[in-house]
Write a structure and sequence with these properties.
single chain, mainly beta, Deoxyuridine 5'-Triphosphate Nucleotidohydrolase, Chain A, 4-stranded antiparallel β-sheet, about 10% helix, globular, magnesium, magnesium ion binding, EC 3.6.1.23, Deoxyuridine 5'-triphosphate nucleotidohydrolase, dUTPase-like_sf
Length: about 180
């Protein structure tokens, strides 16, 4: 036992703390959830590549360019992927930027919603926020596809909305920046 009173207090405090929550990390036949429906992908040419995940826990599937393209400085371009997809019902595909392209080259994505009933070619809208052109090569990973569940409630017109603490505050109102919005 320590003679230091501060150490004794720490030990006592630790003993009275609530126990940590335990999370089950193994699955057996009774707790296994069914596999999600597959993401269906159709190659539209030999240059189309199936989306891939960079790791077992990656949220998004990497999407590949089907041909060389230049994203002009301070401009935008539609990048061909030469694939079509069918996302599962009650989901949509969200095209998201790749963090490395954004942080290193100022490349961002736009207009990235793929509905469950869309079957056309997937194209990626890339924005170049840099002062120099950006070269995309065939086979480059240009974006990621994140499959997200959606809820589509019935639209109901009402005369009044329920009051909340936040009210109509928006555009930075909860972060203390509301006064700077013009």
């Amino acid at each position: 036992m320590s003679s230091n009173p501060d150490e004794a207090t720490k030990i006592t405090e630790a003993a009275t703390s609530p126990p940590a929550k335990r999370i089950k990390t193994t699955m057996d036949a009774t707790t296994a959830t069914p596999a999600p429906p597959p993401l269906q992908v159709k190659k539209l040419s030999e240059k189309g590549r199936l989306p891939t995940r960079g790791s077992a826990f990656a949220a998004g599937y990497d999407i590949y360019a089907a041909r060389d393209t230049v994203v002009p400085a301070r401009g935008k371009v539609l990048v061909d992927t030469d694939i079509s997809i069918a996302v599962p019902a009650e989901t949509y595909g969200r095209i998201a930027p790749r963090s490395g392209l954004a942080s290193k080259h100022f490349i961002d994505t736009g207009a990235g919603v793929i509905d469950a009933d869309y079957r056309g070619p997937v194209k990626i809208l890339l924005f170049n926020h840099a002062e120099t052109d950006f070269d995309v090569k065939e086979g480059d990973r240009v974006a990621q596809l994140v499959i997200e569940r959606i809820y589509t409630p019935e639209v109901v017109e009402v005369q009044e909305l329920e009051e909340t603490v936040r009210g109509a505050g928006g555009f930075g109102s909860t972060g203390g920046f509301a006064a700077t919005v013009v």
